[in-house]
Design a protein that fits this description.
- By secondary structure, this protein is an alpha/beta fold.
- 46% of the residues lie in helices and 25% in strands.
- It contains four helices and five strands; from the N terminus they run E-E-E-H-E-H-E-H-H.
- The chain has a five-stranded mixed sheet with strand order 3-2-1-4-5, sandwiched between helices.
- The two termini are 20 Å apart.
Length: 139
């Protein structure tokens, strides 16, 4: 059984999957979505859930720095509720403040070009979200 981590945006969803032991997160892909047209990538997510035998989903919750939840956070919460009702798998929210910034920093330090960073930033943020969750369980 594996855990899936998601970084949900208005145009993409970054996807990460844990190893079977639940120790490490690996980036899988970035799924194009269209929030305005209610296209959330659930068909592709279903394929990934089945392929990796996912037993739990962690969705990044983008809180404001003062710990409040703004429009983006509310959209992520709605996405998580839809996931839970669609797939009948436990879905948890995970504070993702600064995960995208951390992912950007890692990619910059690795000297990844701007064009390539844009393609992988959401997947990398999903890894950061999932790894944070996995690490919290090890304590």
């Amino acid at each position: 059984m594996r855990i899936m981590g998601l970084d949900v945006g208005s145009k993409t969803v970054g996807v990460a999957i844990s190893d079977e032991m639940g120790w490490t997160a690996q980036g899988i892909e970035t799924i194009a979505i269209d929030e305005n047209r209610n296209r959330f990538g659930f068909d592709r997510l279903r394929e990934i859930i089945e392929e990796y035998n996912v037993s739990e989903i962690i969705v990044g919750l983008p809180k404001n720095m003062n710990n409040t939840i703004g429009p983006r956070g509310e959209a992520s919460q709605m996405f998580a509720e839809n996931l839970q009702s669609t797939f009948q798998i436990p879905v948890k929210m995970w504070d993702e403040r600064l995960s995208t910034m951390a992912a950007e920093r890692v990619l910059l330090e690795a000297d990844v070009s701007r064009k390539k960073r844009k393609k992988v930033i959401d997947k990398m943020a999903a890894v950061m979200i999932l790894q944070g969750y996995l690490d919290s369980r090890q304590i």
